[in-house]
Structure prediction request, 371 residues.
Amino acid sequence: MSSSSPASRPGPIADVAPLSLCAREPRVPADRLVAEMVPPPRFDSVRFGTYLPDPDQPSQTEAVRVLEGFAAGLDGAVAADPGRRRLFGSGFGFGKAPKKAPAGPRGVYLDGGYGVGKTHLLASLWHATPAEPSRKAFGTFVELTNLVGALGFQQTVTTLSGHRLLCIDEFELDDPGDTVLVSTLLGKLVEAGVALAATSNTLPGKLGEGRFAAADFLREIQGLSAHFRALRIDGEDYRHRGLPEAPPPYSDELVTRTAHATEGASLDAFPDLLDHLAKVHPSRYGALTDGLSAVCLTGVRPVPDQSTALRLVVLADRLYDREVPVLASGLPFDRLFSEEMLKGGYRKKYFRAISRLTALARDAKRLADTP
Prediction:
Protein backbone atom coordinates (compact mmCIF):
# COMPACT_ATOMS: atom_id res chain seq x y z
CA MET A 1 0.00 0.00 0.00
CA SER A 2 1.36 3.45 -0.87
CA SER A 3 2.43 5.56 2.09
CA SER A 4 0.20 8.32 0.75
CA SER A 5 -2.90 6.17 0.89
CA PRO A 6 -5.70 7.65 3.07
CA ALA A 7 -5.94 4.27 4.78
CA SER A 8 -2.38 4.57 6.06
CA ARG A 9 -2.02 8.33 6.51
CA PRO A 10 -4.60 11.09 6.81
CA GLY A 11 -4.39 13.85 4.25
CA PRO A 12 -6.35 16.56 2.50
CA ILE A 13 -8.99 15.55 -0.01
CA ALA A 14 -12.08 17.17 -1.44
CA ASP A 15 -14.44 18.83 1.04
CA VAL A 16 -15.99 16.30 3.42
CA ALA A 17 -18.25 16.69 6.42
CA PRO A 18 -16.03 16.23 9.50
CA LEU A 19 -16.96 13.88 12.30
CA SER A 20 -17.78 15.06 15.81
CA LEU A 21 -16.58 13.60 19.08
CA CYS A 22 -19.53 15.24 20.79
CA ALA A 23 -21.93 13.20 18.64
CA ARG A 24 -20.40 9.92 19.79
CA GLU A 25 -21.70 7.96 22.76
CA PRO A 26 -19.83 4.64 22.52
CA ARG A 27 -21.07 1.57 24.34
CA VAL A 28 -18.15 -0.72 24.97
CA PRO A 29 -18.81 -4.34 26.01
CA ALA A 30 -16.71 -5.67 28.86
CA ASP A 31 -14.95 -8.21 26.66
CA ARG A 32 -13.67 -5.40 24.43
CA LEU A 33 -12.24 -3.53 27.43
CA VAL A 34 -10.21 -6.61 28.32
CA ALA A 35 -9.31 -7.48 24.72
CA GLU A 36 -7.92 -3.97 24.19
CA MET A 37 -5.47 -4.34 27.08
CA VAL A 38 -2.54 -4.71 24.68
CA PRO A 39 0.33 -2.34 23.86
CA PRO A 40 -1.07 0.66 21.98
CA PRO A 41 -0.30 1.19 18.29
CA ARG A 42 2.62 3.45 19.17
CA PHE A 43 4.33 0.46 20.80
CA ASP A 44 2.89 -2.39 18.74
CA SER A 45 6.12 -3.09 16.86
CA VAL A 46 8.70 -2.49 19.59
CA ARG A 47 10.87 -5.36 20.80
CA PHE A 48 13.92 -5.75 22.99
CA GLY A 49 15.94 -5.81 19.77
CA THR A 50 14.65 -2.38 18.74
CA TYR A 51 15.60 -0.79 22.08
CA LEU A 52 18.96 0.93 21.61
CA PRO A 53 20.72 1.22 24.98
CA ASP A 54 22.88 4.27 25.51
CA PRO A 55 26.48 2.95 25.70
CA ASP A 56 27.12 5.48 28.46
CA GLN A 57 24.23 4.10 30.54
CA PRO A 58 24.98 0.45 31.43
CA SER A 59 21.74 0.23 33.44
CA GLN A 60 19.82 0.26 30.15
CA THR A 61 21.67 -2.79 28.83
CA GLU A 62 21.22 -4.52 32.19
CA ALA A 63 17.48 -3.83 32.15
CA VAL A 64 17.14 -5.52 28.76
CA ARG A 65 19.09 -8.56 30.01
CA VAL A 66 16.98 -8.92 33.14
CA LEU A 67 13.67 -8.45 31.33
CA GLU A 68 14.58 -10.99 28.65
CA GLY A 69 15.28 -13.48 31.44
CA PHE A 70 12.05 -12.56 33.18
CA ALA A 71 10.05 -13.23 30.02
CA ALA A 72 11.84 -16.53 29.44
CA GLY A 73 11.07 -17.52 33.03
CA LEU A 74 7.36 -17.33 32.29
CA ASP A 75 7.65 -20.04 29.66
CA GLY A 76 6.78 -22.76 32.19
CA ALA A 77 3.63 -21.10 33.43
CA VAL A 78 0.71 -23.52 33.71
CA ALA A 79 -2.87 -22.36 33.46
CA ALA A 80 -5.19 -23.47 36.21
CA ASP A 81 -8.92 -23.67 36.58
CA PRO A 82 -10.54 -20.37 37.58
CA GLY A 83 -9.94 -19.65 41.22
CA ARG A 84 -6.89 -21.90 41.46
CA ARG A 85 -3.30 -20.69 41.63
CA ARG A 86 -0.88 -21.21 38.78
CA LEU A 87 2.82 -21.86 38.86
CA PHE A 88 5.79 -20.34 37.15
CA GLY A 89 8.74 -22.10 35.61
CA SER A 90 12.34 -20.94 35.73
CA GLY A 91 12.97 -18.67 38.66
CA PHE A 92 9.50 -18.96 40.18
CA GLY A 93 9.27 -22.53 41.44
CA PHE A 94 7.69 -25.31 39.48
CA GLY A 95 6.17 -28.63 40.55
CA LYS A 96 2.98 -29.83 42.10
CA ALA A 97 0.41 -27.24 43.03
CA PRO A 98 1.40 -25.68 46.37
CA LYS A 99 -0.95 -24.28 48.93
CA LYS A 100 0.91 -20.98 48.83
CA ALA A 101 1.95 -18.85 45.89
CA PRO A 102 5.62 -19.30 44.95
CA ALA A 103 8.01 -17.18 46.99
CA GLY A 104 10.40 -14.59 45.60
CA PRO A 105 9.99 -11.76 43.11
CA ARG A 106 6.85 -12.11 41.02
CA GLY A 107 7.23 -8.83 39.25
CA VAL A 108 9.57 -6.15 37.98
CA TYR A 109 9.37 -2.41 38.43
CA LEU A 110 11.11 -0.20 35.85
CA ASP A 111 12.39 2.83 37.71
CA GLY A 112 13.59 5.84 35.78
CA GLY A 113 12.93 9.36 34.61
CA TYR A 114 11.09 10.60 31.57
CA GLY A 115 12.26 9.53 28.15
CA VAL A 116 14.53 6.59 29.04
CA GLY A 117 12.35 4.03 27.24
CA LYS A 118 10.46 2.42 30.13
CA THR A 119 7.26 1.98 28.11
CA HIS A 120 9.28 0.59 25.18
CA LEU A 121 10.79 -2.01 27.52
CA LEU A 122 7.46 -2.79 29.18
CA ALA A 123 5.80 -3.36 25.81
CA SER A 124 8.77 -5.46 24.70
CA LEU A 125 8.29 -7.65 27.78
CA TRP A 126 4.63 -8.14 26.84
CA HIS A 127 5.59 -9.12 23.28
CA ALA A 128 8.38 -11.45 24.48
CA THR A 129 6.28 -13.31 27.04
CA PRO A 130 5.44 -16.75 25.60
CA ALA A 131 1.67 -16.66 25.91
CA GLU A 132 -1.32 -15.97 23.73
CA PRO A 133 -2.37 -12.30 23.70
CA SER A 134 -5.55 -13.27 25.55
CA ARG A 135 -3.44 -14.46 28.48
CA LYS A 136 -1.39 -11.31 28.99
CA ALA A 137 -2.59 -7.75 29.56
CA PHE A 138 -1.04 -4.32 29.07
CA GLY A 139 -2.59 -1.07 30.22
CA THR A 140 -1.98 2.16 32.04
CA PHE A 141 -2.81 2.57 35.70
CA VAL A 142 -5.79 4.71 34.70
CA GLU A 143 -7.06 2.06 32.28
CA LEU A 144 -6.82 -0.54 35.04
CA THR A 145 -8.83 1.57 37.48
CA ASN A 146 -11.36 2.26 34.72
CA LEU A 147 -11.64 -1.48 34.10
CA VAL A 148 -12.47 -2.02 37.77
CA GLY A 149 -15.03 0.77 37.53
CA ALA A 150 -16.65 -0.84 34.50
CA LEU A 151 -16.56 -4.50 35.60
CA GLY A 152 -16.52 -4.28 39.37
CA PHE A 153 -13.67 -5.44 41.59
CA GLN A 154 -14.48 -9.13 41.85
CA GLN A 155 -15.21 -9.53 38.15
CA THR A 156 -11.91 -7.84 37.34
CA VAL A 157 -10.09 -10.28 39.62
CA THR A 158 -11.84 -13.21 37.98
CA THR A 159 -11.15 -11.90 34.47
CA LEU A 160 -7.44 -11.22 34.98
CA SER A 161 -6.63 -14.21 37.20
CA GLY A 162 -6.20 -16.48 34.18
CA HIS A 163 -3.49 -14.25 32.75
CA ARG A 164 0.19 -15.06 32.75
CA LEU A 165 1.36 -11.42 32.82
CA LEU A 166 -0.09 -8.02 33.67
CA CYS A 167 1.89 -4.93 32.61
CA ILE A 168 0.93 -1.60 34.19
CA ASP A 169 2.36 1.52 32.60
CA GLU A 170 2.51 4.83 34.46
CA PHE A 171 1.58 3.52 37.89
CA GLU A 172 0.28 6.64 39.61
CA LEU A 173 1.09 7.37 43.23
CA ASP A 174 -0.84 10.63 43.58
CA ASP A 175 -4.30 9.19 44.37
CA PRO A 176 -4.28 7.22 47.65
CA GLY A 177 -7.70 5.69 46.99
CA ASP A 178 -6.81 4.35 43.56
CA THR A 179 -3.42 3.17 44.80
CA VAL A 180 -5.03 1.10 47.55
CA LEU A 181 -7.60 -0.26 45.07
CA VAL A 182 -4.98 -1.38 42.55
CA SER A 183 -2.66 -2.72 45.25
CA THR A 184 -5.47 -4.88 46.58
CA LEU A 185 -6.26 -6.07 43.06
CA LEU A 186 -2.62 -6.93 42.41
CA GLY A 187 -2.46 -8.88 45.65
CA LYS A 188 -5.34 -11.06 44.47
CA LEU A 189 -3.68 -11.57 41.10
CA VAL A 190 -0.35 -12.52 42.67
CA GLU A 191 -2.18 -15.17 44.70
CA ALA A 192 -3.59 -16.47 41.41
CA GLY A 193 -0.09 -16.73 39.94
CA VAL A 194 -0.09 -13.70 37.65
CA ALA A 195 3.32 -12.12 37.00
CA LEU A 196 3.46 -8.33 37.25
CA ALA A 197 5.48 -5.57 35.62
CA ALA A 198 5.09 -1.84 36.18
CA THR A 199 6.53 1.58 35.44
CA SER A 200 5.82 4.99 36.89
CA ASN A 201 7.03 8.51 36.35
CA THR A 202 7.95 10.86 39.15
CA LEU A 203 6.85 14.46 39.16
CA PRO A 204 8.70 16.70 36.74
CA GLY A 205 11.15 18.93 38.54
CA LYS A 206 14.62 20.36 38.34
CA LEU A 207 17.23 18.37 36.45
CA GLY A 208 18.45 15.52 38.60
CA GLU A 209 15.70 15.84 41.19
CA GLY A 210 12.81 13.45 41.76
CA ARG A 211 13.58 11.33 38.71
CA PHE A 212 13.34 7.95 40.43
CA ALA A 213 10.38 6.57 42.33
CA ALA A 214 11.24 3.04 43.49
CA ALA A 215 11.11 3.91 47.19
CA ASP A 216 7.76 5.66 46.78
CA PHE A 217 6.37 2.85 44.64
CA LEU A 218 7.40 0.06 47.01
CA ARG A 219 6.10 2.00 50.00
CA GLU A 220 2.70 2.68 48.45
CA ILE A 221 2.05 -0.89 47.35
CA GLN A 222 2.97 -2.02 50.88
CA GLY A 223 2.56 -5.78 51.18
CA LEU A 224 3.27 -6.30 47.49
CA SER A 225 6.75 -4.78 47.63
CA ALA A 226 8.44 -8.13 48.24
CA HIS A 227 7.08 -9.37 44.92
CA PHE A 228 8.87 -6.70 42.86
CA ARG A 229 12.46 -6.38 41.74
CA ALA A 230 13.26 -2.75 40.98
CA LEU A 231 15.32 -2.05 37.86
CA ARG A 232 16.80 1.42 37.78
CA ILE A 233 17.16 2.79 34.25
CA ASP A 234 19.37 5.85 33.93
CA GLY A 235 19.34 8.10 30.90
CA GLU A 236 18.81 11.49 29.38
CA ASP A 237 15.59 13.33 30.17
CA TYR A 238 13.33 13.77 27.15
CA ARG A 239 13.12 17.51 27.91
CA HIS A 240 16.74 17.87 26.83
CA ARG A 241 16.58 16.10 23.48
CA GLY A 242 16.19 19.14 21.27
CA LEU A 243 12.69 18.48 20.00
CA PRO A 244 11.26 21.34 17.96
CA GLU A 245 8.85 23.61 19.73
CA ALA A 246 5.16 22.93 19.29
CA PRO A 247 3.51 24.95 16.54
CA PRO A 248 1.46 27.88 17.80
CA PRO A 249 -2.34 27.54 17.73
CA TYR A 250 -3.99 28.18 14.40
CA SER A 251 -7.01 30.30 13.53
CA ASP A 252 -10.54 28.95 13.82
CA GLU A 253 -10.86 29.29 10.05
CA LEU A 254 -7.76 27.22 9.28
CA VAL A 255 -8.71 24.48 11.77
CA THR A 256 -12.22 24.29 10.31
CA ARG A 257 -10.95 24.25 6.73
CA THR A 258 -8.43 21.51 7.54
CA ALA A 259 -11.14 19.39 9.20
CA HIS A 260 -13.27 19.66 6.05
CA ALA A 261 -10.28 18.76 3.87
CA THR A 262 -9.10 15.73 5.85
CA GLU A 263 -10.89 12.43 5.56
CA GLY A 264 -11.69 10.91 8.95
CA ALA A 265 -11.07 14.13 10.92
CA SER A 266 -13.31 15.33 13.72
CA LEU A 267 -14.20 18.94 14.42
CA ASP A 268 -15.49 20.19 17.78
CA ALA A 269 -15.50 23.34 19.85
CA PHE A 270 -13.21 22.69 22.80
CA PRO A 271 -15.72 23.79 25.49
CA ASP A 272 -18.36 21.48 23.97
CA LEU A 273 -15.92 18.57 24.02
CA LEU A 274 -15.13 19.14 27.70
CA ASP A 275 -18.85 19.06 28.47
CA HIS A 276 -19.28 15.87 26.46
CA LEU A 277 -16.44 14.07 28.23
CA ALA A 278 -18.40 14.38 31.47
CA LYS A 279 -21.14 12.22 29.91
CA VAL A 280 -18.85 9.39 28.75
CA HIS A 281 -17.12 6.97 31.12
CA PRO A 282 -13.32 7.31 30.77
CA SER A 283 -13.11 3.58 29.97
CA ARG A 284 -14.86 4.45 26.68
CA TYR A 285 -12.53 7.25 25.59
CA GLY A 286 -10.57 4.84 23.42
CA ALA A 287 -13.75 3.88 21.59
CA LEU A 288 -14.59 7.57 21.34
CA THR A 289 -11.60 7.98 19.04
CA ASP A 290 -12.26 4.93 16.86
CA GLY A 291 -11.50 5.54 13.20
CA LEU A 292 -10.25 9.11 13.60
CA SER A 293 -7.41 10.34 11.40
CA ALA A 294 -7.15 13.70 13.20
CA VAL A 295 -8.83 15.72 15.94
CA CYS A 296 -9.55 19.38 15.17
CA LEU A 297 -10.52 21.67 18.04
CA THR A 298 -11.55 25.32 18.05
CA GLY A 299 -11.44 27.70 20.97
CA VAL A 300 -9.02 25.90 23.28
CA ARG A 301 -9.11 27.58 26.69
CA PRO A 302 -8.03 26.72 30.26
CA VAL A 303 -9.98 23.87 31.79
CA PRO A 304 -12.35 25.15 34.47
CA ASP A 305 -11.89 22.60 37.24
CA GLN A 306 -9.93 19.55 38.32
CA SER A 307 -12.55 16.94 37.39
CA THR A 308 -12.65 18.27 33.85
CA ALA A 309 -8.86 18.40 33.74
CA LEU A 310 -8.50 14.77 34.77
CA ARG A 311 -10.96 13.65 32.07
CA LEU A 312 -8.96 15.60 29.50
CA VAL A 313 -5.79 13.86 30.66
CA VAL A 314 -7.35 10.46 29.91
CA LEU A 315 -8.44 11.59 26.45
CA ALA A 316 -4.96 12.94 25.75
CA ASP A 317 -3.50 9.55 26.70
CA ARG A 318 -5.84 7.67 24.37
CA LEU A 319 -5.11 10.05 21.47
CA TYR A 320 -1.37 9.74 22.06
CA ASP A 321 -1.53 5.95 22.25
CA ARG A 322 -3.35 5.89 18.93
CA GLU A 323 -1.10 8.53 17.31
CA VAL A 324 -4.03 10.80 16.39
CA PRO A 325 -2.75 14.31 15.52
CA VAL A 326 -4.50 17.27 17.16
CA LEU A 327 -4.95 20.60 15.36
CA ALA A 328 -6.27 23.43 17.51
CA SER A 329 -7.07 27.11 17.75
CA GLY A 330 -7.21 29.21 20.89
CA LEU A 331 -4.61 28.96 23.64
CA PRO A 332 -1.49 26.80 23.37
CA PHE A 333 -1.66 23.49 25.23
CA ASP A 334 0.85 24.58 27.87
CA ARG A 335 -1.79 27.01 29.16
CA LEU A 336 -4.55 24.42 29.63
CA PHE A 337 -3.99 24.02 33.36
CA SER A 338 -3.82 26.68 36.02
CA GLU A 339 -0.72 27.33 38.11
CA GLU A 340 -2.59 25.88 41.07
CA MET A 341 -3.21 22.63 39.17
CA LEU A 342 0.40 22.42 38.04
CA LYS A 343 1.55 22.70 41.64
CA GLY A 344 -1.05 20.32 43.09
CA GLY A 345 -1.23 16.61 43.70
CA TYR A 346 -2.14 15.73 40.11
CA ARG A 347 0.58 17.84 38.47
CA LYS A 348 2.33 14.78 37.03
CA LYS A 349 -0.77 13.95 35.00
CA TYR A 350 -1.12 17.51 33.76
CA PHE A 351 2.51 17.76 32.68
CA ARG A 352 2.14 14.46 30.85
CA ALA A 353 -0.99 15.69 29.07
CA ILE A 354 0.77 18.91 28.02
CA SER A 355 3.71 16.92 26.70
CA ARG A 356 1.54 14.49 24.76
CA LEU A 357 -0.85 17.06 23.33
CA THR A 358 2.16 19.14 22.27
CA ALA A 359 3.61 16.13 20.45
CA LEU A 360 0.27 15.52 18.72
CA ALA A 361 0.04 19.20 17.75
CA ARG A 362 3.49 18.85 16.21
CA ASP A 363 2.24 15.82 14.27
CA ALA A 364 -0.73 17.84 13.01
CA LYS A 365 1.40 20.62 11.58
CA ARG A 366 1.72 18.84 8.21
CA LEU A 367 -2.07 18.87 7.85
CA ALA A 368 -2.26 22.62 8.39
CA ASP A 369 0.70 23.26 6.09
CA THR A 370 -0.73 21.23 3.19
CA PRO A 371 -2.13 23.50 0.46
Q: What stands out?
A: The first helix runs from residue 30 to 35. The chain has a mean pLDDT of 82.
